[in-house]
Design brief:
It contains five helices and 20 strands. It is an alpha+beta fold. It is flat and about 85 Å long.
């Protein structure tokens, strides 16, 4: 499963912006709380700062792009400060994550998987991870080229010329080469912005406006159960509306008991929760409801007061259709109802039955 952190690390190796370690020692003069570390950009999240041998990393603000560190209070004259960590050649962590997120958004626009789920980094197929990183490297190289565009050639009186504009030309050539690589990968793998869509002609029922199922062709003497083909459904140019609730899809096996916990960032003592499952959002026909309990979990962090446990028994999972919808709503002490969690439920049919 891909993560933003893993893709960011891969992008750094693609553009040669790998982290380098350093240790910098200096003595405070008692007049300022702002010091320049001669290494930037810094990996602020993993920077270790000690004062007279005591770790004070949590009390220091790090300006990653510029290399400055700012103490909460002015260190006393003669305090020994040691700063240790990693620095990069080009980009901060936030900038790298921005390029990866932008590249993924553009790469997966209007694309869904075979279940009709919106693509996210967590369910990104492994074969698409590298193309996303390649596209992110194009965005990063364009940013470097934009910075180099402000450099001008230097002409010395003795006839020596420093062609600083060549750096811009080299970066643009690299960006164009990686763009061509991304285009080729997408065209051959059938993914991303250069995806070549190949559609199976499907019939739509005139009475229900639903697709007629497609099954794999079988030999004339094959008496086994037909295998259904789940073809990705086109978006027809539509987009998913943004929701303020947490979107969490569930995957359930038919005939199995199912349990999952949801941890909120507030205590639930004064809230009354409900969670229903319906064929479609807004449908009047209720399929079933989750059994909701507040389990006694957590010790000192209060997690038990913020956790809901939702359960379905084996009979309930058997009655679910292949795809259904659910949400978790809660009513507060003032009678106000709000939806906190929503999503789809995808059921896999059971093979062994009692």
């Amino acid at each position: 499963m891909a993560t933003l952190s893993v893709l960011s690390d891969r992008l750094r190796y693609e553009i040669g912006d790998i982290p380098k370690s350093f240790v910098y020692t200096f003595t405070a003069d008692g007049t300022t709380n702002r010091f320049l570390v001669p290494y930037s950009p810094l990996d602020g999240a993993n920077l270790v700062i000690t004062k007279n041998g005591i770790n004070i990393s949590d009390d220091v603000e790090v300006e990653e792009a510029t290399g400055y560190i700012v103490f909460d209070t002015v260190p006393e004259d003669g305090d020994d400060i040691i700063v240790a960590g990693n620095y990069f050649k080009y980009f901060t962590t936030r900038e790298i994550e921005h390029y990866v997120s932008t590249a993924f958004t553009e790469h997966s626009l209007n694309h869904t998987d075979s279940y009709g789920r919106t693509m996210t980094i967590s369910n990104l197929p492994g074969v698409e991870e590298y193309p996303v990183v390649v596209h992110a490297s194009v965005l990063a190289l364009y940013a470097l080229a934009n910075d180099a565009a402000f450099d001008i050639n230097v002409f010395a009186p003795d006839g020596v010329t420093i062609p600083r504009s060549e750096r811009y030309q080299q970066l643009m050539q690299m960006a164009q080469a990686r763009q061509a690589q991304y285009r080729e990968l997408c065209s051959q793998l059938g993914i991303g912005m250069y995806k070549i869509d190949v559609f199976s002609v499907r019939r739509i029922s005139k009475t229900t406006n639903r697709y007629v199922p497609i099954y794999q062709p079988m030999e004339v003497d094959d008496r086994s159960t037909p295998i259904r083909v789940y073809v990705p459904i086109p978006t027809y140019g539509g987009t998913q509306p943004e929701v303020t609730a947490l979107v969490q899809d569930l995957y359930i096996y038919e005939g199995d008991d199912y349990t999952f916990n949801v941890v909120f960032d507030f205590e639930l003592d004064t809230y009354t929760p409900t969670a229903e499952i319906r064929q479609m959002p807004g449908s009047s026909a209720l399929i079933t409801s989750f059994t909701i309990t507040k389990p006694d979990v957590g010790t000192g962090d209060g997690a038990g007061l913020r956790t809901l446990q939702l359960d379905l028994n084996e009979d309930q999972t058997r009655m679910l259709p292949g795809t259904s919808y659910y949400d978790i709503q809660m009513v507060d002490a003032d009678g106000v109802t709000k939806t906190y969690v929503t999503g789809k439920i995808f059921k896999t049919k059971e093979v062994t039955t009692e």
